[in-house]
Amino acid sequence: MLRRELGRALERGSLRGPTALALARVWQRFADPVRPVALPPGAHVIGVGGATLGGAGKSPVVLALARALAPDVAVVASSYRARLSGARRVRADDSVERVGDEALWLARALGQVPVIVGKSRDQALALAARHARCVIVDGLLQARPQRLGCSLLVLDADAPWGARCCPPAGDLRASRQRCLAAADAVLTTGAVEAPIPVFRFLAPLSGVIDASGERRPIASLALLRLGLVLAIARPERVRAQLRALGITPAVVELHADHARLPDRRAPVDAWVTTAKCATKLGATRGGAPVWVLEQRVELPPEIVALASPPGS
To answer: At 5, is the pLDDT very low, low, confident or very high (cuts 50, 70, 90)?
Structure first.
């Protein structure tokens, strides 16, 4: 509960007392989106990062880009909350406790594309480069001393720079200027002004996968009494997307990003959730089926061309 409320406070920028603002200025002075990383020789490494502490939509972009660049591509996923002693390839039947929710979701969605996690990013990168010459790193915007082959900054359309302040007064990872200087291009679903190329991508809710694995039209949800359960950053984005489609869940349960989802019984026809959250749920929750919202990310061909290895 405390972590969830703290996360929401950072997203809203509501911790704006004198002490928080003073600490935020110190954070911003030293915050650097360029990370010391050992890039494997000969590998074309693509970084996909965000300007805020989650919620920009970078992981769905990683998924779409990996599909576009397959088969000669591997993905280094976030290992947040994973229990790892080294680097390993994620299997579809791994436990979420062992590899983390984002890595497990990506591995299940990508099938034959290797998804790698590691105790350190360097370990994960080295293993990924043994699987493919092109490697996408989720959560890395830029590296040093050697720059990445391509760096994509994913920005939220409604709040591209979050609360416009670094922690503890906001959710900005680093200053706007440093994030833009680290990136080769911006990806967003809305209109953002930047001194580097800006590309728009689409990420609509296109359907829902029911407990039997069958795809249903998203509009069919409007006829049901639904429960919505989420453990993601900026869950209001999902609620707003559903609302725009005329879907208003009767029961809404929001948890902190990456949080475990306890079992709960409620008077609903079905629970709906994201694919990432579904890695922590079974086919049913409290006796009601669990359905997964399907988000279809459509990348512009210019981004795929920009990210592709030279000569491909």
So the answer is: low
CA-to-CA separations, 131 to 117, 256, 310, in angstroms, rounded: 13, 33, 18
Distant-in-sequence contacts of 167-170, Cβ < 8 A, 24+ apart: 167/10, 167/23, 167/24, 167/27, 167/53, 168/10, 168/15, 168/20, 168/23, 168/24, 168/27, 169/13, 169/15, 169/16, 169/20, 169/21, 169/23, 169/24, 170/10, 170/13, 170/15, 170/24
Given a cut of 80, whether residue 312 has pLDDT beyond it is: no
Same domain, 217 and 236: yes
Residue among 273, 267, 268, 263 at smallest CA distance from 295:
273
Helices assigned H by DSSP within the chain: 2-12, 18-30, 58-69, 96-99, 101-110, 121-131, 176-182, 236-244, 275-278, 301-307
- CA–CA separation, 238 and 251 (whole Å): 14
Rounded distance, CA 167 to CA 25, Å?
9
* Residue appearing with tokens 């007392």: 17
Residue 6, pLDDT score: 61
Q: Which tens digit of pLDDT belongs to each residue from 52-61? A: 988 888 999 9
Q: How many domains does the chain have?
A: 2
Residues 6+ apart with CB under 8 A from 212: none
The answer on 160 and 24 residing in a single domain is yes
Domain that holds residue 167: 12-198+299-307
What CATH number is given to the structural domain containing 45?
A: 3.40.50
**CB half-sphere exposure, 111, CA atoms < 13 A:** 5
Alpha-carbon distance of 134 to 43, in angstroms, equals 6
Identify each DSSP E strand in 157-295 by its residue range: 185-188, 198-200, 205-209, 215-216, 226-230, 251-254, 270-273, 284-285, 288-295
Cβ neighbours of residue 277 under 8 Å, at least 6 residues apart?
101, 229, 230, 231, 232, 261
**Angle (CA) 259 262 263, round 5°:** 150
Reported pTM: 0.93
